[in-house]
Amino acid sequence: VTPISGGPSEKLGIRAGDKIVKIEGETVAGIGIKNGDVGKKLKGPKGTHVNVGIMRTGEDEILDFEIVRDKIPIYSMDAAYMVTDEIGYIKINRFAKTTMEELRTALVDLNKQGMKDLILDLQGNGGGLLKTAIQMADEFLSDDKLIVYTEGRAFPREDTHAYIKGNFEKGKLVVLIDEGSASASEIVSGAIQDWDRGLIIGRRSFGKGLVQRPVPLPDGSAVRLTVQKYYTPAGRCIQKPYEDGVEAYRMEKYDRYASGELLDSDSISLPDSLKYRTNVKGRTVYGGGGIMPDIFVPLDTTYASDYFSDLLRKGITNTFALTYVDQHRDELHGQYQDVNAFKANFSVEPIMADFLKFAEDEGIAMDEEGYNTSEFAIKTRLKALVARNLWDYSAFFNVVNVLNPPFVKAVEVLQDGTFEKMDLAHSQFK
pLDDT digits over 350-361, tens only? Predict the structure, then answer.
C-alpha cells in the first residue's frame, strides 16, 4: 500500500510498504487475487467501518486496523520544495477545486523558508477548472491586470481581471510548459508572459482554448457548440487551428514529432503575421495556437532505450524501491535526517546488482547497450523512488528533476543573470 496523504489510512498509521492480507477476516493475499477486487472490498459509504489485517516488515503478527471510511483527498500539487536557499519549486498536475488552497499553503511555506524566486511547473498539465486558472494567475499578477478574455462571432468580448493580492506578486518567476500543457495551463502561462511577469521555458503548449456551451435536443441528448475562444492579454488566440478537419486536428501533436519541432526550435515556422507585443516591455511573442516559450528546451532523448522503457512499463523500479525501503526504513531514516541529506549522500550503487537481478527475475533480460545508454536515468529514478517511499512526492521530484531539462534550464537562468537580461517587468510589480 501507499496511503494517500491526508486519507483515512494514513491517519491511522498505515505506512507505505504495508501489505493488506485480510479484509473483514477474509484473506485477500495470494495467487488469483486482483488489486481491483481488493479495492472494491475497501470502498464503501463515508463513515462506515472496514477491518483490515496488515503485514509489516519487522512484525511477526498481523496488525489489525479498523478504518473509518472517508472521502479520499485527491491532490493536484505533486511537489513543493526549496531547490536552493532562494529558489522554490511547485509542480501542479491539474487545475482542480483544491488547487488554490494547496498552492497558497505551499507559497506561504516556501516564503517562510526564504524563497525569492519560483519555478512553477505546468508540464503535462492538461488543464481543468477555468476559475482555478484565473485565481492562479491572480497569485502572480498585481492590481487589476487582464488575465484572459473570451470572444466569439455572436458573443461580445468578456474580460477577466486580477482582483486580489497574491502571495507571489514580486520576485523572479519561471513557468515550465510543454506540448502536454493545455487549456488552464495556457491561460496562466499566457498571462504571465504577456505582462512580462516571468519567463516561460520549455516547448510550445498544446493549444486548447475553446468555450463550449451545451444545446439540449428534443430527445434529451445535447450537443456542445463552440461559441467563443480564449485570448491572452496581448490578444493571442490560445486555440490551435482546426479548419483542416478533425483528423488533422487530432494528429497535430504527433505532427510536431514528425516535423522535428520538439527537438529543434529552428523547425518551428513563425511568420510575421503571428507576432504580438507584450503589454509592458513590448517584447515579441507569438500566436497561432498554444503558448510559445521564451526559452526553448528540446525534448530530451539522451537516456532513452528499450531496456529503460521496459523497466518503467512493468513497474520494476517502483516495486524494487518499495521493497527496499520496506526492509530498511528505520535504518534509512536514522542515517538521513531529511531529503537534502539523502540527496547529497545516498548512493544506489550498493543495491544495483540486486536491482538488476530482480529485473531479470521479473522477465526483463539484461541489455548491456540499453543499460549503458540509460544508466544515469535508471539510477536517478531508483534513488528518487526510494526518496518518495521514505518521504513523499516532493522528495521524489527533488531527486528526479535532474532528469528534467526545462527545470535544469530554469535554475540556470535564475542564477546566471539570464533572467535579468530578458528585460522583464517583475521588479515593477507593486
Answer: 999 999 999 999
